Structures are given as structure tokens and as C-alpha cells.
Structure prediction request, 146 residues.
Amino acid sequence: MQGIQTFSMIKPDAVSANQIGAILAMIEKAGFAIDAISMLQLTQTAAEHFYAVHADRPFYKDLCSFIASGPVVAMVLKKDHAVADLRKLMGATNPAEATEGTIRKAFATSIDYNAIHGSDSDETAASEIFFFFPGYSLLIKRKPIL
Ligand code: CMP
Prediction:
């Protein structure tokens, strides 16, 4: 069975473009409930930990510097098939390939500045939620993530 939670993060490009509200509206309109939310700025070290899975990719350093360059909005989103449905709503990683109606088509300006992140599996969602919201499964009275 697919999980009912995913992790998402509005990236610094969309935050500085004043598009938090517009993106949250698209997320809610698509049927997601925002279950936890936090606006904060990551240190370079925290960004490197968050994106450690990409450590060998050529874009890793620039990606981490960008993510640490300004505030992000981190969220736990709830919906049946949350991971797959959010990835559909976000659209392709490269906005040049994103279809009409997706968040990246509307707000991303390049593959590097692509407005939003979403977990790629239930397992990744669990670890990304723990990274930003360590109390989520321990302190908050909700269903377990996996
Ligand atoms: P995100 O979903 O946050 O996961 C990793 C990010 O790396 C991705 O969005 C892109 O913004 C960025 N990135 C830059 N170049 C690439 C690439 N060639 N392939 C995948 N992701 C890339």
C-alpha cells in the first residue's frame, strides 16, 4: 500500500519570488492537507546532509549553496498516494519539460531553480520528514509515516 504522507519544500527561488501562497493554494486545491509546516533557512552543512544522496553528482555543490541561500518552506503533506500525486503536481524536474498546470511549469525558471522539492519514495519521505520534523512521529499524535 502506498503511504499517505510525503515531504515537500518550497525552494528559495519561489520564496523570494513571493510565490509561497500561490504554491500552497495549488497543493491544497490538488487535495493535499498540510499536516506540518515550517519556514527556515538551512545552513550549508544542513543542505549538504539533506541532499547527501546527490553528493557524487556534478550539480551537488551548487544545489546545496542554492538551497542554503535563503528561507525554504518545509511541509508534511497528507493524501492517499501522496508521493506519486505530489510528483505529478510538481511536474518534471526540468521546467522546460513540465506540463501545463504543474507547479514547476508555473514557477520554476530552470532545472536548478525549480521552485519545489518532493520526496521520490515513501522511504525517502520518512527520512526527509524526520530531517525537518524530528518530533513528527514521536511527539505528534498522528498515524505512522510508513
Ligand atoms: P530536487 O527535486 O530538489 O532534487 C535534486 C535537485 O537537483 C533537483 O530538484 C534539481 O533542482 C537539481 N538538479 C540540477 N541538475 C540536475 C540534473 N541534471 N538532474 C536532476 N536534478 C538536477
The radius of gyration is 14 Å.
